[in-house]
Amino acid sequence: MPLGALPRVILLLLAWAARCTSDAYTYEPPGRDPVSIDNVRASEKAVRLTTDNFDELTNGKLVFIKFYAPYCPHCKEVAPDWNKLATHYQELPDSDDILIGSIDCTDSPKGKGLCARFKIMGLPTFLYGDASHGGVHLQEYPMGDKTYEQFKSFAAKALVPTCLPGSLDACAPDERPQMEFFMDMSYDALEALIKATEKEEEDANTAYKTTFAKLQKEYDQGLTEKELAITKANANKKLIREVMALKEQ
After folding, report:
1. Spatial separation of the C-alpha atoms in residues 231 and 210, rounded to whole Å
2. Number of Cα atoms under 13 Å in the Cβ half of residue 160
3. How far apart (Å, rounded) are the C-alpha atoms in residues 46 and 87?
4. How far apart are CA 173 and CA 161, in angstroms?
5. What strand order describes the sheet that includes 62-68?
6. pLDDT tens-digit map of 9-57
7. What distance in Å separates the CA atoms of residue 216 and residue 224, rounded to the nearest whole number?
């Protein structure tokens, strides 16, 4: 090969290698390639929460959080409505104590860590409530429509201060004494109280099982007696009809 042709061959090889490198991700399933995932993440209007910022951004706030995956079909369906909710609260006056957030469960490790922390089993999942103390008070959004209007209506009712150990000012007069009683107890005393309560629960379950077993036995006995009585009655009816047929002759 003439020496002058070498630079052209090298350029062609470099161009081919660059193309292969740039197109490598296109062999991922639709929606799972890096560009698509980055586009979905960038389109989120809600506050992006990770293990790095969760406690700092949510502490002392009422939150409504979406756990999702960028390529999850159901997550994609709800994304426009969730974005509208996030925009609504960002523009709503006097709503600094409310945070609408999103957590990407495929973002390892910062998103995955939060999904593991809150034991997320399916996507999308929505948690809401007072995020104080690391989010121990958060509850799961009940089953229902996942539309902007539904989210907005639910949030207006649910994202309000509630009576919790960290927010006694929100307690009603009849709730506060019990809350303060528990707050005044030591950690060891509370732990002992939990064990005693768990024992009560266990005893209630045991009593139920005992009562159920007794009722089941009585039911089975009654069922057997009923079947025997019906069998005897059918036999007597058959015999009576046979006697009646004989008398008609």
Report:
1. 32
2. 7
3. 8
4. 15
5. 47-48, 98-104, 62-68, 125-130, 139-140
6. 565 555 555 554 444 444 566 668 888 899 999 999 999 999 999 999 9
7. 12
CA dihedral 137, 140, 145, 149 (to 10 degrees): 20
Q: How many CA atoms lie within 13 A of 157 on its CB side?
A: 6
Q: Give pLDDT tens digits for 124-152.
A: 999 999 998 888 889 999 888 899 999 99
Question: The dihedral of CA 105, 108, 112, 113: what is its sign?
Answer: negative
- Record the tokens describing residue 176, joined without a space: 């506060």
CB 49 within 8 A of CB 58: yes
β-strand pairing of 139-140 with 125-130: antiparallel
Transcribe the chain into DSSP letters. Answer: --GGGHHHHHHHHHHHHHHHHHHGGGGSPTT-SHHHHHHHHHH--SEE--TTTHHHHHTT-EEEEEEE-TT-HHHHHHHHHHHHHHHHHHHSTT-TTEEEEEEETTSTTHHHHHHHHTT--SSSEEEEEE-HHHHTT-EEPPSS--SHHHHHHHHHHHSS---BTTBGGGS-TTTHHHHHHHHTS-HHHHHHHHHHHHHHHHHHHHHHHHHHHHHHHHHHHHHHHHHHHHHHHHHHHHHHHHHHHHHT-
Sign (positive or negative) of CA dihedral 241, 243, 245, 247: negative
Q: Which token pair is 140? A: 């799961």
The CA–CA distances, whole Å, from 236 to 227, 241, 246 equal 14, 9, 15
Query: What token pair was written down for 70?
Result: 């960028």
Spatial distance between the Cα atoms of 198 and 204, rounded to a whole number of angstroms: 10
